Model the fold of this input.
Amino acid sequence: MNLLKRFIHYYKPHRLIFALDMASSFLVAAIGICYPIITRLVLNDFLPNNDINGIIVASVILLVIYFIRMVLRFFIQYYGHIMGVSMQAEMRRDLFVKLEKLPYSYYDNHETGKIMSRLTNDLFDISELAHHGPENIFIASITIITSFIYLMLINWILGLISLAILPILLTISIFFRKRMRKAFKESKIAIAEINANIESSISGIRVTKAYTNSEKEIEKFDKSNQKFINARKSCFKSMASFFSTSQFITDFFNVLIILGGGLFLYFGKMQIVDITTFIVSISLFISPINQVINFTEQFQNGSTGFQRFIEIMDEKEEEQNENAEILDNVRGDIEFKNVSFSYNEGETIIDNISFKIDAGETIALIGPTGGGKTTICHLIPRFYNLNSGDILIDGKSISKFSLESLRKHIGIVQQDVFLFNGTIKENILYGKLDASDEEVIDAARRANILDFINSLPNGFETNIGERGVKLSGGQKQRLSIARAFLKNPEILILDEATSALDNTTELLIQNSLNELSKGRTTLVVAHRLSTIKNANEIMVVSNGKIVERGDHEHLMGEDGIYKSLYMLQFKNVSENELNSLNNFITMLR
Done:
């Protein structure tokens, strides 16, 4: 019942069209009964009395009525579909808004292609149900009621025999419904899996081609495709059982009516005209029943799609204090107090760590992969909620601030740069949507990419393709830095921002990052230790704990992990080369 109420909610903005659609459906159904009534009148009165004028008038009236029904059906088809599409668009918007509010953890566990399936395939099925559902049920109901009343007027015994078909068909429907619902849900899951595989394969097409693994991708697709075929087989088997059984029942009742009518005629209880009219009318009575039966597939598709839609709509959104404060006038002091965190229960990622960063300082996090460095960075903008402990900005818990105001003051430059399909200008503007052209140009200049942009025929209006595919790794990274410059945050997170670049490009981009870091509280996650030598403090993170901390000179004076990593990275570099490299880095700073 709750599911139905939530479905009906989407009809509210379209009450007028819905009411007109139902009124039109009522008239279409009412017009349907006119044919047997006029037929009986012609056979009973006009033909026996040779009333040719009556026959002509009846035919004209019937033609006019059918013309009106044509207009009404046009309205139902056109405006009904418009209503369905509008509802589909509203649901899609609601779903998209919901997706924007879901936490990082949701996307950790759900593939993009499967989410896309719910935004497209499922909502299309819901749209079709929203349009055809009420209309088909309404027309069928009116037609069944009016035709049944007329059948009873012709012969009440045969009318009651006809009525007996309804509970039998209803019992069959209930029997098969549960099986069909399960089959249709499995079918939608299989479609979502196909979409997920396609999305993954197309996104990674360059890797596939580079490793000549097209056959492997085809094999993976074929497995998903076969799952879909098997799921649809289950659907069709359930539908076939339901439809064939239902149709047999209606055919059986047709035989009963012919047998009953023949017996009534034989014993003189009915006229041939009444039997003829009854047979025409029984067709009018049974046709909408068959229409409802045939509607079952669309109903199962739509209702299953709506259930999957509701599953996402009921997902828990990012937690936020109802009376959240607005974070403003940020200095940039950050403090971790006994912070622990795990993605999954029983799997500790961050284990009771505490440290403090003063405003304007640069802190570097190093350590083995999976040690918890990136997780520490993700906890500051509250991408995930803590298991225990607290994180403070300027002495206040981040849990007290609204997510939007908190993240507004934090800039992130990551190793895996994500750029949107659009122009260079649009991607830089993502840092500050209302920025002026002068601010965009200045951000590009400070990120050392302005000369490259100006060398392009379309300059800032150059389209960079999906995920910035038309740009090199260094160019993409500089665009992300320009975006961060434009945002101008007080707190900056550099998560292995140069680790995917070659040494020359890294050194050039490091200059931009150093410029970006000036005057900001900065956390740097790095594997290349040469880039973090001048950090105010370096923390070695391993297994969720801070195992070493201090500046470069302090850590090099200890026989610990940092020194081992540093010497390992430069073991093949002579002392003179190392000094020259360090001097060059210092000069860039």
In short: The chain has 21 helices and ten strands.
